[in-house]
Input
Amino acid sequence: MPTNQNSINLAGDILGDILIVDDETANLKLLEELLIREGYQVRPADLPQLAIDSALAQPPALILLDVRMPEMDGFEVCRRLKQDERTRDIPVIFVSALQDVQDKVRGFETGGIDFITKPFQEEEVLARVRTHLTLRNMQLNLEEMVAKRTAEAIERGERFRATFEQAAVGVAHVSPDGKFLRLNQKFCDIIGYTHEELIDLTFQDITHPDDLDTDLEYVRQVLEGEIENYSMDKRYYRKDGSIVWTNLTVSLVTATDDNPKYFVSVIKDITERKQAEQKILEYQQRLKALASQLTIAEETERRRIAADLHDHVGQTLALIRLQIASVRERISDPGQTEMLDEISESLRQTVQETRDLIYDLSPPQLNEIGLSAAILEWLEEHVEKRYEIKTECISNGPEQQLDENLRSILFRNTRELVINVIKHSHATQVKIRVLQDHNHMEILVKDNGIGFDAGAVSLSLNGESSFGLFSIKERMADMGGSLEIVSEPGQGTKAIINVPVDKKKD
Output
């Protein structure tokens, strides 16, 4: 692994050489100071071509790339970097004030892996940088490990083949009742017994009990002619009591009268592969935990911003409208009253837009009235009053206390599903069912719209609708849940959210 790309300090933090590309000096300086303070090596670049030249000359571990720049936008910079073998695998995070879904889709299509929206939060920047450097570091480590193990396996195979035929794998002839008849040295080496010791044993004697029944069932099927051969991953007990993982392949040799003579058993030591698989599983679990933490952090920040907008901005705007109304009552000049009316109307629209933004983030009353009630309130206020769509939201019983992060995520996902219905389904009716028990919740969003062939459409990044569904699916996966889409042309669509729930900890 190149030392100029990634390293790990004593605290376990992933450090790296990060290229920051932004034509705005203030943004460039802010990101540079933030990352340097966290211990990262930083290369700033204020021109697109300068950034490309710098990356090609010395590939960084990660690139933070602004979208809107003179001469060449960030999408084109990313496209050119992904075309060069030297920079193709460098993770690129776009930093942009753009909110349009199509722009984000374009960013992913050019090779970007993530977006950070301006104005950004320091915690978000650090979390995303850390996550993607961690992913890249794991990828490089796995590639190095695979290359090393492959080289070692090739070397061993060549060495053993030079001294003994079939030394690369273990081979044994085994009688139908399980006794070892003939073995090569490689087999003995893998199992950890001498040839003489194994001749006095059966394969049943050294097979791990959890694998024995499966092995014996395969033997029965071969002897009865149901199958010709079989292969399985199997554990043996070595002479020293340790366990060795092998890949076992078995076929039957028969006499001229078709009576069984012996089995040919070929084994390959796959202990290292099993250990690598376990490490990969552990890495996946760590990444899932990181993703979940990032989702929770995002929801926490959304609630904070929504609360600030509700408690401060919204209240201030409402107070200003009251003050304008009070002043208007004391003014008789028609021109002045007309101007005050226009200002009041603009404030009214701003208040409504602020309320919409609060609902988009996380409505503060969600924790006060509960998930089902909040969904119903939003449907009545923001759907039925604005669109000719009949709505319904029912629950199967009293709502249990949910973790506030999960409650916010479920509300936002349900809201996004309904907005998706409004934009794309041409539906006249939307029904929502909130079903729950002590440890599980299901939210069903059903419409009577035009529907589509769900079997032919995956939750990929194809279009605004699919991108929204993909985001919901990923968000649910981070929380251990799922999103299922059921639809047929002309039959409407059902979106089903399933998620495990824990009671809110007081």
About this structure: The domain at 164-269 is CATH 3.30.450.20 (Beta-Lactamase). The longest strand covers residues 243-254. DSSP finds 15 helices and 16 strands in the chain. The two ends are 46 Å apart (CA to CA).
